[in-house]
Structures are given as structure tokens and as C-alpha cells.
Write a structure and sequence with these properties.
Length: 255
């Protein structure tokens, strides 16, 4: 089964509108629209999304996503942003359950599951982040944690819905630390995640769902990771803040 790799830039709380415009003018110089066979996504902070849309000027070769979304439709939820608002400004993707949201905002699998359902109902593609902490890995709990994140986070979804979403496997100890999972360890985790998807949602969903790797991906390690059979792209933080390094990672996935 061939799956189109997806490379997404998670800018986190970096890049205001002006910086984003400068990034995009450098990024355009990389001529990545000619780089076929890889889906490219930029995930800016909410307030930067309109500036990114404007700078893309209708260019369809890069999708835009948001870093989070509310589990409610509208109303008295101060500070929240709804799926309809994201769709209205042209977002196609939304990251949900990032480990920083789990860690600093207490997000649980059950809560994230509600956001995934809202995203799917609005036609957005969820990028559902999962991954173990170092303590969990060292305690031998890797598979238990990944299984619960897949089963609880995707509970109640149809096989077709799961086939169309993106899972980002991001070992928490590898995010922003410069430590990357070895290609062997990452492939093993991805294969396990796919096997759990298969048990619950069937072979077709398991074959189609794309599983990105995230955690200190950079141009130097991208090719080796992207060559693994169950790794279908990357969610990139730090290395996606510079147009040239983000472009190099995209090229590594396209080969
Ligand atoms: C992330 O935030 O999703 C991430 C993977 O960050 P970094 O690439 O900086 O480790």
C-alpha cells in the first residue's frame, strides 16, 4: 500500500504574521510546488493563519492547519476557536492532542477524542498526536500507552474516518530535545500503532492511515526515518522554523 507522505510544520508559539511572511517568501524560493508526491502543511499560531493564507496567495500545493481546536461548536468558551472558524479561514488540518497540550493543559485521550470528532464533522483532517514519556518508555509501558492513546483517542470513529486521518507518533522525550528515536525504534512503534489500528478498524484503515514521526526531525535524520515502511512523513517543530531546513525535510520525504 503506497501512502502519500505528509510533512507538517508545527510552528508552536513562534512566528507572528510578519515573520511568517518572511518565511514564506524564502520558502517560495525553494520551488517546492515542483516537489511532487509529498503533502506539505504549515501549522501556524491562530493569529498568523490569515497572513500565511495571504502569502500563499491561492497556492494549493501547501495546506494550512491549526494547532488546536475547541471540542464545542460556539458559545461561552472564552479563548477557544471552533472548527467552523478554522474552515472559514481556509484551514484543512488541525493538530490535536499535542504532548505540550497534554502536559501543560491537562488534555486527556477522552477530551481529545471529542476534538477529533468535531474536526472530522467539519471536514478538517485531524493530525492526532500520541507518544510516550521517557518514564513510561523506561517502565516498559510503551505499547500500553500507545494502545490506550489509539483506542481512546479514536473511540467511536468509523473505519473510513480513521483511514482518512493522520496520526503523529511523537515520543515526548524526543520533542525539542535534539534526541531522535532511532529509525529502528521509530519503525517498531509505527508498526505497533498500525497493528492496533488494524485490530480495531480493520485492514483497510490500517493500510490507509498515515502515521507521521515527530521529535527532533531535521534534514540530517529525515531520509533515514522517511525510508521506514510505516513512517509516512513527519511533524516538525524546531527545524520547520527555517525555510531551508523545512524544505530539505520535504525533499527527503519525496525521494
Ligand atoms: C513537535 O512539536 O511536534 C515537534 C516534533 O518538535 P521538534 O521537531 O522541535 O522536536
Amino acid at each position: 500500500m503506497s501512502r502519500t507522505p505528509i510533512i507538517a510544520a508545527n510552528w508552536k508559539m513562534n512566528m507572528g504574521p510578519q515573520e511568517a511572511k518572511e518565511f514564506l517568501s524564502a520558502f517560495k524560493e525553494e520551488k517546492l510546488c515542483e516537489c511532487k508526491g509529498v503533502e506539505k502543511v504549515i501549522v501556524p499560531p491562530f493569529v498568523t493563519i490569515p497572513a500565511v493564507m495571504e502569502a500563499l496567495n491561492g497556492c494549493q500545493c501547501i495546506g494550512v492547519g491549526a494547532q488546536d481546536v475547541s471540542d464545542h461548536d460556539n458559545g461561552a468558551f472564552t479563548g477557544e476557536i471552533s472548527t467552523a472558524m478554522l474552515s472559514e479561514i481556509g484551514c484543512k488540518y488541525v493538530v490535536v492532542g499535542h504532548s505540550e497540550r497534554r502536559q501543560y493543559h491537562g488534555e486527556t485521550n477522552t477530551y481529545i477524542n471529542k476534538k477529533i470528532k468535531k474536526a472530522l464533522a467539519a471536514g478538517l483532517v485531524p493530525i492526532y498526536c500520541i507518544g510516550e514519556t521517557l518514564a513510561q518508555r523506561e517502565a516498559g509501558e510503551l505499547e500500553k500507552i500507545l494502545r490506550s492513546q489509539v483506542e481512546e483517542g479514536l473511540a467511536g470513529l468509523s473505519d473510513e474516518q480513521v483511514a482518512g486521518l493522520v496520526i503523529a507518533y511523537e515520543p515526548v522525550w524526543a520533542i525539542g530535545t535534539g534526541k531522535t528515536a532511532s529509525a529502528t525504534d521509530a519503525q517498531a512503534a509505527h508498526a505497533f500503532i498500525r497493528s492496533v489500528v488494524k485490530e480495531t478498524f480493520g485492514t483497510d484503515a490500517a493500510d490507509k492511515v498515515r502515521i507521521q514521526y515527530g521529535g527532533s526531525v531535521k534534514p540530517a535524520n529525515a531520509s533515514e526515518l522517511m525510508a521506514c515502511p510505516d513512517i509516512d512523513g513527519a511533524l516538525v517543530g524546531g527545524a520547520a522554523l527555517k525555510a531551508a531546513s523545512f524544505a530539505a525535510i520535504i525533499r527527503a520525504a519525496a525521494i
